[in-house]
Amino acid sequence: MEVIIQPDVTAASQLAARMVARQLREKPNSVLGLPTGSTPLLLYRELVALKLDWRRVTTFNLDEYVGLGPDHPQSYARFMWENLFRQVNILRKNVHIPDGLAKDIPKFCTRYERQIRQVGGIDLQVLGIGTDGHIGFNEPSSSLASRTRIKTLTAETRRDNARFFGREEDVPHHVITMGIGTIMEARQVLLLAFGENKAAAVAAAVEGPITAMCPASILQMHPVAKIVVDEAAAGRLQKTDYYRWVFAQKPLWQRW
Ligand code: PGA
Fold first, then answer.
1. Average pLDDT of 143-169?
2. What HEC string does the chain produce?
3. CB of 19 within 8 A of CB of 242?
4. For the segment 62-113, what is each residue's pLDDT rounded down to a tens digit?
5. Mutate to test the pocket of ligand 1, among 43, 129, 151, 180 (most ligand atoms within 8 A of CB)
6. Which is nearest to 204 in space by CA: 190, 216, 222, 195?
7. What's the pLDDT score for residue 23?
8. Is the pLDDT of residue 254 over 90?
9. Looking only at Cα atoms, what is the longest distance across the chain?
10. How far is CA 237 from CA 3, 82, 110, 129, 218, in A?
């Protein structure tokens, strides 16, 4: 794992945007795995500003609420089109987002996994992290080998996400999410975490034991996982001096 501490959300998002931009330049037909939520908002704004060529890019989103269609204001499909896809030249046929209205959810999930395989797998998976350590919507106790499937949200996650819905009771109980096994097959992983409320989850994921009780901790087993955090989210890490030193010593060709 490479932990990169940046002074604030803007600097961290700009760095993450440069990493994504490098991926798209080096491989114009890249397959990206993408998150939603507050965390990637500035990253998406930066990517739009970079005016990259998205015509050959394929994307797979991590998750979606069951029961919400693409026109629902809180659906992740709507979020992605508003915050990124509509502002870049991506082709609609290359965008994949779990279908919250799928009639046969297990069949849909099997197809989603097949679609990822058919395009050769995900080159770069961008992730946020929940206050409970979830990645995608893989809540604590999720199988570390799980595949795309339906999950039930924890009370903590429903509370965290109530801010988008206005009322907690309006947050759906169920979601479709890529599995932890699916995420781990991506060739590179870039996890972003900002703010003090993520500090405990980041510390558990990076410096704690690998455990299904903190799903993000499985990234310790990923060969190319980068964790980009602001100072606040780094606040409970023990080895910050070491992470800063490693980043400062990086050869120029390895920087973004
Ligand atoms: P957030 O969510 O970006 O809205 O904090 C992250 C997550 O739940 O994975």
1. 95
2. CEEEEECCHHHHHHHHHHHHHHHHHHCCCCEEEECCCCCCHHHHHHHHHCCCCCCCCEEEECEEECCCCCCCCCCHHHHHHHHCHHHCCCCHHHEECCCCCCCCHHHHHHHHHHHHHHCCCCCEEEECCCCCCCECCECCCCCCCCCCEEEECCHHHHHHHHHHHCCHHHCCCEEEECCHHHHHCCCEEEEEECCHHHHHHHHHHHHCCCECCEHHHHHHHCCCEEEEEECCCCCCCCCHHHHHHHHHCCCHHHCC
3. no
4. 999 999 999 999 999 999 999 999 999 999 999 999 999 999 999 999 999 9
5. 129
6. 216
7. 97
8. no
9. 52
10. 10, 34, 38, 15, 17
**Catalytic, out of 63, 99, 123, 160:** 63
Q: Give me the residue label for tokens 């279908």.
A: 99
Q: Ligand 1 centroid to 26 CA: how many Å? A: 28
Q: Which atom of ligand 1 is least distant from the CA of 128?
A: 9
Domains defined for the chain, CATH in brackets: 8-185 (3.40.50.1360)
Q: For the chain, give the number of residues.
A: 256
Strand order in the sheet with 95-96: 2-6, 225-230, 188-193, 124-127, 31-34, 58-61, 95-96
Residue with tokens 């991590």: 62
How far is it, in rounded angstroms, from Cα 27 to Cα 127? Answer: 20
Q: Sheet containing 63-65: which strands, arranged edge to edge?
A: 63-65, 174-177, 149-152
Nearest alpha carbon to residue 201 among 133, 134, 155? 133
